[in-house]
Every structure is written in structure tokens, then in C-alpha cells.
């Protein structure tokens, strides 16, 4: 949905020695043009971003998102973000969101072609309503991403573990999933392993063990998955990062797509094969994800 409040950030170097960054933020009208046409974010998707869930004005897991922003920037050879500056920008936009669920988006772009500094901005917008997916589940299809599991190690310039602005492929996969009558997709490697969804991580339950594909396989390490694993481990469940063969997907006892704004959406069908919908467990996962998390 359209942002309701937006800030442009005058990017500070990561080692800037200051405590208050308020004067580096410019409030802009989110409905009006704000970026020069030479912006490399617009021309090439050359930048990184984060989407942070906001529940009744509380921004969830801000530190984890800022650390991943810094990691993505490093992978893309972008200047390191000053984390206090971005934290203060998040706090300012969070204060302008109303009650309910919303999403804060942080963007760090390489800036204007030929320019001297990166461009940054932060917005807040009402969240899409995911109530039906959380309660009734989603149908997914597997889609081949066309690279083997070891591609990220051999070709780090693919930027597999970075949350870059180049999501055209991810959006194309979602459209393909819809064409095939599904709600979402799960990417697989060309050698038959499971990766992630175009905008979410995958968690499987096998008995009392919760499993997710290892982030070494060139996927984004999801903050929601990390938060859920910490919670599940504290409750006494086993959690594991594994190389998951796609052929084992449909034999899971249960499965979810998880991400910062959708939270946990149970998967009820993979490539036409049914999976059990665990309503109570899913409700407890989502109750946790909706609680204030830092
Ligand atoms: N994987 C991809 C490709 C994503 O785009 C996202 C979120 O947008 C995730 C995983 C889940 O990440 P998070 O839980 O931090 O939202």
C-alpha cells in the first residue's frame, strides 16, 4: 500500500561521531516525486533495502534488520550505514504510523549516476492484510531458480544473500505461481534443493524438529525465521539448518512461509500435494510474532 509518511536521509558516514541525526532527515510528501531520474535504484535496482514489521507503533526486531542492511550493503560494496542514524529514522517514521499493522521500508541506493554519495530513504505504509493466509493457509508451487546449491560460493556476484532492490525475478516467480493456480512459490536449486520463497523464508516441521534451508545455500537469512527459531528452541523444540532436498518437501509434518509483514502463513499444498494445517501451532507462532519483539 502507498506510504503515509516518508523521510529522505542525508547519509552519514558509518564512523560519524554524533548522537542526534534529526537534522539529516527531510520529511517528504510520499505522493510527490522525490528522486532524480538518474537514481541508480530506479535505473538498475542498484541498492539494498529492508522491510520492518510495525505493530501498534512498535517496530519489530530493528537491530536484526539494521544488521542485515549493513550486511547487504557490504556484499554490494555500498558504504556502510551508520546504524544509529537509521535507527533514529525508523523511530521517527514509527511515531507517524497509526495503530494496527504497518511496514517500514528502508532503502539505501547507490545514488545518482556519477554522483558522490548514496541516497537513503525510509517510509511507513499500512500493511497488506494477511489474516486469511495466516488462518487458512496458502498453496505453493516449487520453481527452479536455475542455479545449483553451490552457485553462491562460486559466483558471489550473484549477491544471493543480500536484500537488493533487484526483485524483478522474485516478482516474476510470484506471477508464475499465480498462473499455476497457487498463492506463492518456493525456489529450488537446479540440483534439487529447497531455497526460499520470493519474499519469505521456509520453515518445515518434522516431528519435534523445525528445519529451514541453510542460508549458505544463497538465500536471504530471514529475521522472522531467526526470531521463531529462538522462540521454539526456548520452548524445548529442536531447530536445524539443513540442505533440504525438494523431494522431501511434501513429507513434512507441516510447513510455513515466514516473513516480517506476513508473519507465519501455513502451507496447505505443495505442487498439488496436501500438507496438514496446524491451526493451533500456527496461531501460537503468529501470537508470538505479533507480540512486541526487540
Ligand atoms: N527471503 C526473501 C527473498 C525475502 O524477500 C524475505 C523478506 O522479504 C525473506 C526471505 C524473509 O525475511 P524477513 O523474515 O527478515 O522478513
Automatic annotation (TrEMBL):
Protein's UniProt keywords contain Acetylation: no
EC number(s) stated in the UniProt entry for this protein: 4.1.3.38
InterPro entries cross-referenced by the UniProt entry: Aminotrans_IV, Aminotransferase-like, BCAT-like_C, BCAT-like_N, Class-IV_PLP-Dep_Aminotrnsfr
Single Gene Ontology MF annotation: 4-amino-4-deoxychorismate lyase activity
Pfam family, one: Aminotran_4
Domain of life: Bacteria
Alphabetized SUPFAM superfamilies for the sequence: D-aminoacid aminotransferase-like PLP-dependent enzymes (SSF56752)
Keywords attached to this entry: Lyase
Recorded family membership: Belongs to the class-IV pyridoxal-phosphate-dependent aminotransferase family.
PANTHER family recorded: AMINO-ACID AMINOTRANSFERASE, AMINODEOXYCHORISMATE LYASE
Protein name: Aminodeoxychorismate lyase
Protein source organism: Microbacterium memoriense
Amino acid at each position: 500500500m502507498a506510504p503515509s509518511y516518508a523521510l529522505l536521509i542525508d547519509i552519514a558516514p558509518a564512523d560519524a561521531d554524533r548522537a542526534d541525526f534529526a537534522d539529516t532527515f527531510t520529511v517528504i510528501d510520499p505522493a510527490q516525486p522525490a528522486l532524480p531520474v538518474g537514481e541508480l535504484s530506479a535505473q538498475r535496482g542498484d541498492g539494498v533495502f529492508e522491510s520492518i514489521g510495525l505493530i501498534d507503533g512498535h517496530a519489530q526486531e530493528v537491530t536484526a534488520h539494521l544488521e542485515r542492511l549493513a550486511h547487504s550493503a557490504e556484499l554490494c560494496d555500498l558504504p556502510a550505514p551508520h546504524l544509529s542514524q537509521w535507527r533514529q529514522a525508523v523511530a521517527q517514521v514509527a511515531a507517524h504510523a497509526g495503530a494496527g499493522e504497518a511496514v517500514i521500508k528502508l532503502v539505501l541506493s547507490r545514488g545518482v549516476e556519477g554522483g558522490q554519495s548514496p541516497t537513503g530513504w525510509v517510509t511507513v505504509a499500512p500493511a497488506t492484510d494477511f489474516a486469511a493466509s495466516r488462518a487458512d493457509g496458502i498453496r505453493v508451487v516449487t520453481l527452479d531458480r536455475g542455479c545449483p546449491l553451490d552457485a553462491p560460493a562460486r559466483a558471489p556476484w550473484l549477491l544471493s544473500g543480500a536484500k537488493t532492490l533487484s526483485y524483478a525475478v522474485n516478482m516474476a516467480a510470484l506471477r508464475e505461481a499465480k498462473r499455476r493456480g497457487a498463492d506463492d512459490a518456493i525456489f529450488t536449486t537446479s540440483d534439487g534443493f529447497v531455497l526460499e520463497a520470493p519474499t519469505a523464508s521456509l520453515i518445515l516441521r518434522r516431528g519435534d524438529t523445525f528445519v529451514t534451508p541453510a542460508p549458505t545455500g544463497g538465500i536471504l537469512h530471514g529475521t522472522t525465521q531467526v526470531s521463531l527459531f529462538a522462540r521454539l528452541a526456548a520452548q524445548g523444540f529442536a531447530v536445524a539448518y539443513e540442505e533440504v532436498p525438494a523431494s522431501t518437501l511434501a513429507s513434512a509434518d507441516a510447513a510455513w512461509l515466514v516473513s516480517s509483514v506476513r508473519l507465519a502463513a501455513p502451507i496447505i499444498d505443495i505442487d498439488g500435494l496436501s500438507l496438514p494445517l496446524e491451526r493451533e501451532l500456527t496461531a501460537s507462532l503468529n501470537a508470538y510474532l505479533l507480540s512486541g519483539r526487540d
